[in-house]
Automatic annotation (TrEMBL):
Pfam families: BPD_transp_2. The keyword Transmembrane helix applies. Keywords: Cell membrane, Membrane, Transmembrane, Transmembrane helix. InterPro entries: ABC_transp_permease, LivM-like. This is Inner-membrane translocator. It is a multi-pass membrane protein. It comes from Gordonia bronchialis (strain ATCC 25592 / DSM 43247 / BCRC 13721 / JCM 3198 / KCTC 3076 / NBRC 16047 / NCTC 10667) (Rhodococcus bronchialis). One of its GO terms (cellular component) is plasma membrane. It is found in: Cell membrane. One of its GO terms (molecular function) is branched-chain amino acid transmembrane transporter activity.
Length: 329
């Protein structure tokens, strides 16, 4: 087996567009779960609205991409308020149930033939990202190599924009978490009754966190729609939210860089066994007898075991604070 080529592929995934997308989802979930203690199991629903906001406005209404991004993020903010109004005054599990149901309902509605004129149903939306790539300083069709790690020019441009957005969001989360707003949010997470006794409107702070995290998730959908560059409703499945939670757990909740490190590590750990297993099953005399479908399943089993070991030996994640995890429990 070629270990070097496997590492090169894994390193490309480490910083690639997929890692950026899940980092954005995880940053939003970090505000929800890490700082506010909110169980949002429907983050991918916010990403769906962000992505389709770009696609629908550009293809159906011939509007610029930036306007579609604003529409998608605004739609996510409205969805967060609609979901938060009836649930944030109740127990945390009600929000989890409502968000996972809402994201699945959105996916089914957007893939329905009855909405084909707007959402293009299962055919998806494509052919709208040319203005985005027209701004690229790279040759979009050319392959670039850095220490043997290869990227297409279009992916490089998406990575430059994506990691810039991630850096700005990390700065925003740092400033918010070290502000009075962030300290109140942590107080609400630890003991909502005590925060209320001190005169803080816990419901208002939780609503703000839900809306802000949902908008960041929608921004992830906007980025994914441009980096792909296409949108299909079947991509926005519930599993994507739990992948983002896996990234958050790996990196460490309630930390600034935990979601980013976790997303990068998530894709690195997913790529390494995938490449090695495919090498072992290739050729006339394979080392392991497995089909491509089995390889795809086994890599998730290996990643799941890695996350389980992380939860046993370091439940706070790579960058997390064990004291905060214990308080949150």
């Amino acid at each position: 087996m070629d270990i070097v080529s496997a590492l090169q592929v894994a390193l490309a995934q480490l910083v690639g567009p997929s890692a950026i997308f899940y980092a954005l989802l995880a940053i939003g979930l970090n505000l929800h779960f890490g700082y506010a203690g909110l169980l949002n199991f429907g983050q991918i629903g916010f990403a769906l609205l962000g992505g389709y906001g770009v696609g629908i406005m550009a293809v159906n209404y011939d509007q610029p991409l930036w306007l579609g991004a604003i529409v998608g993020i605004a739609a996510a903010a409205v969805l967060a308020m609609v979901l938060g109004v009836p649930t944030l005054r109740l127990r945390a599990d009600y929000l989890a149930i409502v968000t996972i149901a809402a994201s699945e309902i959105l996916r089914l509605v957007f893939r329905s033939t009855s909405t084909d004129e707007v959402t293009h149903s299962t055919n998806g939306i494509y052919g709208y990202s040319a203005p985005f790539y027209a701004q690229s300083p790279f040759d979009n069709g050319k392959q670039y190599s850095f220490l043997g790690i290869k990227f297409i020019g279009g992916d490089l441009w998406a990575m430059v924009i994506g990691w810039s957005i991630v850096a700005l969001l990390c700065l925003m989360v740092y400033l918010l978490s070290h502000s009075p707003w962030g300290r109140v949010l942590k107080a609400v997470r630890e003991d909502e009754d005590a925060a209320r006794a001190l005169g803080k409107n816990a419901y208002f702070f939780k609503m703000q966190a839900l809306v802000l995290g949902g908008c960041i998730g929608a921004l992830g959908g906007v980025f994914n729609s441009l980096a792909s560059p296409s949108i299909n409703p079947d991509f926005f499945s519930t599993a994507q939210t739990f992948f983002a939670y896996g990234a958050l757990i790996l990196g460490g909740a309630a930390t600034v860089f935990g979601p980013v490190v976790g997303a990068m590590l998530f894709w690195f750990l997913l790529a390494i066994p995938d490449v090695l297993l495919r090498q072992a099953t290739a050729g006339d005399n394979p080392l392991i007898s497995m089909t491509e479908q089995q390889v795809g399943a086994v890599r998730y089993v290996i990643l799941g075991l890695a996350i389980m070991l992380m939860m046993v030996f370091r439940p706070q994640g790579i960058l997390g604070n064990k004291r905060e995890v214990q308080l949150d429990a």
